[in-house]
Design a protein that fits this description.
By secondary structure, the chain is mostly helical. The chain has seven helices and no strands. Helix 5 packs antiparallel against helix 6. It is globular.
């Protein structure tokens, strides 16, 4: 079995690209929040309070995210999530550039991105079997299982940390916003809901 074979499926490639870029942004956002909060002169308690809102948002969005993924077109959910994340990361980074960022603004942005990211992966998971044949699902799982920790826990913090170290925290925020913007472009290239997805979303009679 070729572990890269799912990438030969035209409909899955933009979904995979959106997932990789979203994982990159998610992995980098925690580091950006910490560095931006410290740049404002935060204490250890303030720093932990700001960063904690990402986890709170993720937990708050988990249950409704699963329900929404069953009832709404998956592409619409993914596009909506990425649009919210792009607006939030761009606004927060711009405020930081103009010295207008505050602790409460960073906490709110952490919560929003936490909630919206919770909606991404149920929609992604539900869309995979619609786009990829059953024979390739195991390869998709392996590809995703390898990519997510590599990108989210290694590549993202390393790249964004280097950018922040060489400039200012807001530059890392703009890099994250750029990754989210590319993910949004990829998501917009996803095929329209097919009959299989529509049938799955239709209420039982």
């Amino acid at each position: 079995m070729n572990p890269l074979r799912p990438l030969s499926v035209p409909g899955y490639r933009p979904l995979f690209a959106a997932m990789v870029l979203t994982v990159f942004a998610q992995g980098a956002w925690a580091l950006y929040l910490a560095m931006q909060t410290l740049d404002l002169g935060a204490t250890a308690a303030t720093l932990s309070g700001v960063v904690a809102w990402s986890g709170i948002g993720l937990l708050a969005g988990s249950l409704p995210a699963g329900v929404l993924a069953d009832r709404v077109a998956k592409k619409s959910v993914i596009v909506g999530v990425l649009t919210v994340n792009l607006a939030t990361s761009t606004t927060t980074s711009t405020a930081a550039i103009f010295d207008a960022a505050t602790f409460w603004m960073l906490a709110v942005s952490a919560f929003i991105i936490g909630v919206s990211t919770a909606f991404f992966f149920p929609a992604y998971t539900a869309l995979v079997p619609v786009l990829v044949g059953s024979d390739d699902l195991m390869a998709v799982n392996g590809l995703e299982g390898t990519t997510r920790p590599l990108v989210g826990q290694t590549l993202a913090p390393g790249v964004v940390g280097a950018v922040i170290g060489a400039s200012v925290p807001a530059a890392g925020g703009y890099l994250i916003a750029g990754a989210v913007g590319l993910a949004l472009i990829a998501a917009l290239r996803l095929p329209a809901p097919c009959s299989a997805e529509t049938d799955a979303e239709a209420p039982a009679t």
